[in-house]
Amino acid sequence: MAHKSMKALVAAAAVALLATSCAAEDSSGDGSAEGGAYKVAVLAASAQNGYNQAVYEGVVAGAEDLGLEVDAKILDGGFDATTQLSQLQNAATSGEYDGVIVVPHDGPSLTAAFPMTGDLPVVSVLNPIGPDIDELEPQVEGVVSTVAVSPTAAAERQAEDVVTYCADLDPCSVMLVVGNLSSPLDVARRDAYQSVLEANDNIEIVSTLEGNYDRDQSLSGVANALQSNRDVNVILSNADQMTLGAEVALTNAGIDPSTVYLTGGGGTTEALQAVREGRWAADYVNFPVSMGAAAMEQLANAIAGDPVETVVDADAVGPEGVEPYADADSLATVEDFTGEWNG
Amino acid sequence: MTSTATATSTEIPGRRAAFPRPLLLAKDYAVLILLVVVTVYLSFASSAFFTSDNLLNILNQNAPLAIIAAAGTFVIVSGNFDLSTASVFAVASVSAAWLASETGDVALALAAAPVIGLALGAVNGLVVTALRIHSFLATLASSLVYSALAVLITGGALITVTAEGFTELGRGEFLGVFIPVWVLAGVVALLWFLLSGTVFGRHVFATGGNAEAAELSGVRVNRVKILVFTLSGLAAGVAAAIAVSRIASGQPQAGAGMELQAIAAIILGGTSIHGGVGAVWRSVAGVFLIALIGNGFDILDFNPQLKDLVTGVIILAAVALAAVGRTRR
Questions:
Q1: Total domain count, chain A
Q2: Are A280 and A248 a contacting pair, CB within 8 Å?
Q3: Average model confidence (pLDDT) for chain A?
Q4: How far is CA B156 from CA A42, A214, B251, B253, in A?
Q5: Which residue from B minimizes the CA distance to A251?
Q6: What is the CATH number of the domain that holds A114?
Q7: Is B101's Cβ below 8 Å from some Cβ in A?
Q8: Residue B54 belongs to a domain
Q9: A-chain residues within 8 Å CB-CB of B252?
Q10: Does residue B10 lie within any of the structural domains?
Q11: Residue A10 falls within a domain, yes or no?
């Protein structure tokens, strides 16, 4: 009986293998095999995240704008570096795709996938792939383009606006709310904030908090920190979700948010509304839909063998006239712009 | 019913004589001792710590987790685990946000959260008892299903609620105290009485102490299990209503990791992971011991990268202290 079962198992495995190999042949990534349609894998850091969904939306819209027929499939990395690494390796070995667009959860860890099997072009969005998180030029063979800005440069620019605000305040008390200090990206941002702010004698960083890109956690952290720093002048964060939590904490503590220099990062619909209403002083705006479209354009160039821009400045891809380091004045000039995502 | 009688105490009969009384007290009240030590330290370290504003702030921000842990005590005392509380919390909070933004009926939306939590908790209980699956696996699986449900409700996106009055539950005050603190006080009082002062509570202890013996003694063990999971789901729903009202937005990742925080707080408080022994006040004390560490880090501006390390060491210290008797058997 056991022998029969083993035979059946071996037969089933053989049939499955045969079917898989046939399927692999049928699903060749050669775009011409399906009447010119490109098959593109969009590896999202998390497919359930609003930012990543906006990038995917941009990829699809970008393909339409270019007049390309593209079959784009979004894969969920679940905010897990190992999962995303496997997805990238699978995309290369399966031969199913003509190109890959990645929103890396952890750019340095994806380096392990390169050089990849085959000649699959990869475009990275938001963060570079490679050991240096601030180097946007391709660091590994196979990455053809990166649509991003250096996290350190962006954080420095945010901090410089704080320095300008603090110019007439002595002391100027600043609270930092950064995402996740186990991530190299957020450590780089914190270091950039500190290096710019600490160069000014009138500025005192009274608290550095982890907000984990979560409103509730930021609310709790800022509420705690306000117990010993009620006279805070600035709350500087790298994400709008965290600034929204900080705003609630200020309100709960009886502090009018508009009396504090509140700023975040992301350019969500809610953040832009807060800046326009004067509740926040500024916001660093991202353009995930436009970034997705730019990534698709570079990927299409690479697949077609056309020249590729190895670095696309993510701050420059947004709608015309929208200043990425936005305040109420700059947003007043682009009344129709309400942000490319919400999250 | 002997097991019930012994289980309602955290003491281990027959093993007491070997230890000096102060050590036994330290073992039984490890969480309170650590709570006092941390409180005293923080009071000296920062003048901002021991103020009514800050203490109310700590109670307010940790009310949702404390409510989940208080109800979770029933599950663990009954010898089970509920790994789905965070997912139930997510479904309940996005449902409330969705209802509020679609209908504008704030009361309906916030009332829906506990009802949904109760229903999902009851499903957990039915799965555990009807399919005879270990609660660890059953709720691990249901947590995946519920998480997916939360994503489907929102489409993975954020639901922002602008309906007037929606934030009253999470941000409002009554007699100068945040409403979530009143809700927490009411829930803890009710659950404390339910576990320590009712027949149902004794049945929960009996089920966790020795389910077979309890069954033979006439305790309807399956009904007890269904009820404790239902209670856990209800508490997650109440916590979700508070949290979603506080931040005025629903997101599918809401509450991520909360199930493990709640279990850690329950065990830290001294409730036995093996079931049959525990108390609601212990879990609430466990929640606030962990909360004090976070509060202290933020007030004193300590490096947040060390927060998990310190929290882990304190949990180990409390659990080790409570386990002194067991390690010397």
A1: 2
A2: no
A3: 89
A4: 16, 15, 8, 9
A5: B171
A6: 3.40.50.2300
A7: no
A8: yes
A9: 48
A10: no
A11: no
- Which member of B158, B243, B304 has the closest CB to residue A210? B304
Q: Which residues of A touch B300 (CB under 8 A)?
A: 228
Contact (CB, 8 A) for A86 and A116: no
Contact B299 A48 (CB under 8 A): no
Name every chain B residue with its beta carbon within 8 A of the beta carbon of A174: none
Same domain, A62 and A128: yes
The whole-angstrom separation of Cα A248 and Cα B268 is 31
Among residues A219, A242, A221, A253, the alpha carbon closest in space to that of B56 is found at A253
Same domain, yes or no: A237 and A309 = no
pLDDT at B302: 92
Q: Into how many domains does chain B fold?
A: 1
pLDDT at site A12: 47
Rounded to whole angstroms, the Cα distance separating A53 from B59 reads 36
Is-contact A155 A189, C-beta < 8 A? Answer: yes
Helix (H, G, I), strand (E, B) or coil at B301: coil
Q: Does A189 fall in a domain?
A: yes
Provide the shortest C-alpha distance from residue A116 to chain B (in Å): 31
Chain A positions touching B249 (Cβ under 8 A) are: 215, 244
Closest CA of chain A from B295, distance in Å: 6
- CB-CB under 8 Å, A270 with B54: no
Domain match, A243 and A296 both: no
Specify the pLDDT at position B18. 62
Least CB-CB distance to B301: which of A49, A208, A244? A208
Residue B185 in domain: yes
| B161 domain residue, yes or no | yes
Confidence band of A4 (pLDDT split at 50, 70, 90): very low
CB contacts of A48 in chain B (<8 Å) are 151, 156, 252-253
User: B-chain residues within 8 Å CB-CB of A216?
Assistant: 243, 246-247, 254
Do the domain assignments include residue A6?
A: no
Q: Say whether pLDDT at A2 is over 50.
A: no
On whether any CB of chain A is under 8 Å from the CB of B93, the answer is no
Domain containing residue A204: 152-286+322-332
Asked if A172 and A135 sit in the same domain, the reply is no
- Examine residue A7 and state whether it is found in any structural domain, yes or no: no
Look up the CATH number of the domain holding residue B41: 1.10.3470
Q: What is the pLDDT of residue A35?
A: 52
Facing residue for B53 by CB, picked from A219, A227, A342: A227
* Residue span of the structural domain in which B238 resides: 24-327
Question: In this predicted model, what pLDDT tens digit does every residue of A31-51 receive, in sequence order?
Answer: 433 456 899 999 999 888 889
Tokens 């359930």 -> residue: A48
- Max distance between CA atoms of chain B, in angstroms, equals 64
Same domain? For A178 and A296 the reply is: no
Co-location of A101 and A227 in the same domain = no
Each residue of A171-211: pLDDT tens digit? Answer: 999 999 999 898 888 999 999 999 999 999 999 999 999 99
Question: How many beta-carbon contacts under 8 Å exist across A and B?
Answer: 82
Contacts with B62 (C-beta within 8 Å, 6 or more apart), sequence order: A220, B287, B288, B291
> What is the Cα–Cα distance from B162 to B249, expressed in whole angstroms?
9
Chain A residues within 8 A (CB-CB) of chain B? Answer: 47-50, 53, 181-182, 206-210, 214-216, 219-221, 223-225, 227-228, 244-245, 248, 251-252, 270, 342-343
Q: Is residue B321 scored above 90 in pLDDT?
A: no
The candidate with the shortest Cα–Cα distance to A113, out of A124, A98, A129, A99, is A129
Mean pLDDT of chain B: 90
User: Cβ–Cβ of B298/A53 closer than 8 Å?
Assistant: no
CA A1 to chain centre: 56
Element (DSSP H or E) covering residue A38 = strand A38-44
